[in-house]
UniProtKB/TrEMBL annotation:
InterPro entries: Multihaem_cyt_sf, Multiheme_Cytochr_ET. It comes from the Bacteria. It comes from Desulfocapsa sulfexigens (strain DSM 10523 / SB164P1). It holds the Pfam family Multi-haem_cyto. This is Uncharacterized protein. Residues 1-24 form the signal peptide. The keyword Protease does not apply. Keywords: Signal.
Length: 429
């Protein structure tokens, strides 16, 4: 046993020495060992360094040679990675992650937030800075005083190690999929699926025990294409056969600005939603993702059980939408009666859920008082609590589905109705 361990250690040391010798004397390595040593260590531990075929200049070019000309260093985007990883690039380009930056900028609230949180990457932009950008988008970011960043491949495979193993760890998903409107990490990690994964890591379960991770369900077999059946907004077409459920979904689509509140006709916002696939707007695209998920579930469960569970999730969506639609129509009546004044950039005299707790789209520091409180409660009901109700259900987390989701929605609805009564009474006076 000792001999085997010695041989393994010697081989590891030999590999590390070969990598270090391969990079020793490289001007980039020599300089950055002093300036940013952790970055150098990451590179030296990578498959890129091990192969000897991917050097600093491969990705960053050869124009940066001194401390003074650091701005000449090229910051590579996905297309550089695609030169070697074409299949993964094409999968990523066709998946939902590729729409991170585009979808963020399609939402009015984005343009009311401080630039530090968007272009600076310390708020929504920190995660949504993912996706293939146009040259115009890159220039816009730089023009606002922020160095162009790109967090696509390196969002999951941290630069400069670009570790495949790191990207396959569910913690790689945690940094973005957590918090206010999408706490998938909290849901999964405290579910039976997550508990089994942690138990397996601790050696409390056999190495071949079933313990589904984020990647198991959403990036199966290492694919870089990700998609979900319901989409981020949790709405889809065609409308359900049940009349009440269909009416409720139409009400939500109106509040998303996708349908005109008076005519029911599609609006230009529909094109933006289609472009970034924030909703499933045809049966084929929805069914394709549902069938893929059923297949994934059947790795551990029977086909009938998997279908039953996902069908229950669809049913919860309809019940949550009943609460949501009642809240929307309550607030809409206040707009109709002139008790709430329509903000300048709202698409219609109607509640607009894509405000995301922000105001009318002007600068954030000038208009914080222009969105009514009842509108803020409505947006919270949709973006926070409805999300938790259905996402918690599909992530097999009873606490999130009920206490943080459904129960909070019922409280929101009660508050909205009471606020409406108070506002009417005040308005009469």
């Amino acid at each position: 046993m000792r001999k085997k361990n010695f041989v393994a250690i010697a081989a590891t040391v030999g590999l590390l020495l070969s990598v270090n010798f391969a990079t020793a004397g490289d001007a980039c390595i020599d300089c950055h060992t002093k300036v940013s040593p952790a970055m150098v260590k990451d590179y030296q531990s990578s498959k890129h360094a091990e192969s000897g075929e991917v050097t600093c200049s491969t990705c960053h070019g050869e124009e940066h040679k001194t401390a003074e000309d650091y701005k000449n260093a090229k910051l590579p985007d996905e297309h550089v990675c695609a030169e070697c990883h074409e299949e993964q690039f094409n999968e990523f380009a066709s998946g939902k992650h590729n729409f991170g930056w585009t979808s963020l900028n399609a939402i009015p609230a984005t343009h009311a937030a401080p630039d530090e949180l968007i272009e600076g990457g310390r708020g929504c932009g920190g995660c949504h800075n993912m996706g293939i950008k146009t040259e115009e988008q890159k220039k816009e970011q730089v023009a606002k005083g922020y160095r162009y960043q790109n967090n696509s491949c390196d969002e999951c495979h941290t630069r400069h190690s670009f570790s495949k193993k790191e990207a396959q760890n569910p913690r790689a998903c945690q940094q973005c999929h957590m918090g206010y409107d999408h706490p998938q990490w909290e849901m999964w990690s405290s579910s039976k699926h997550g508990m089994r994964w942690f138990a397996k890591q601790n050696g409390d379960l056999p190495a071949d025990a079933a313990a589904p991770t984020c990647q198991t369900c959403h990036l199966p077999e290492g694919t870089h294409h990700n998609e979900t059946a319901w989409g981020f907004l949790g709405v889809r077409l065609p409308l359900p056969d049940d009349k009440q459920a269909a009416d409720d979904r139409v009400t939500i689509l109106k509040a998303l600005g996708v349908l005109d509140p008076k005519t029911g006709a599609p609006t230009p916002i529909l094109d933006a939603v289609k472009a970034v696939r924030m909703a499933k707007l045809d049966q084929e695209s929805w069914q394709k993702e549902r069938d893929k998920m059923l297949k994934t579930c059947q790795q551990c469960h029977s086909a009938s059980y998997a279908k039953e569970q996902l069908d229950m999730g669809d049913s919860i969506m309809m019940k949550a939408d009943r609460l949501m639609a009642e809240a929307i129509t309550t607030v809409a009546a206040l707009y109709e009666e002139g008790i709430i004044e329509k903000p300048a950039n709202y698409p219609a005299n109607y509640p607009f859920l894509l405000t995301f707790m922000h105001t009318n789209g002007e600068r954030w520091d000038k208009d914080l008082d222009k969105l009514s409180y009842i509108d803020q409660v409505l947006v919270q009901m949709y973006m926070k609590h409805r999300m938790r109700a259905y996402q918690g259900f599909f992530h097999v987390n009873p606490d999130y589905a009920y206490w943080y989701g459904w129960n909070e929605m019922t409280k929101d609805l009660g508050e909205i109705k009471e606020l409406a009564r108070t506002m009417r009474a005040t308005h009469k006076k």
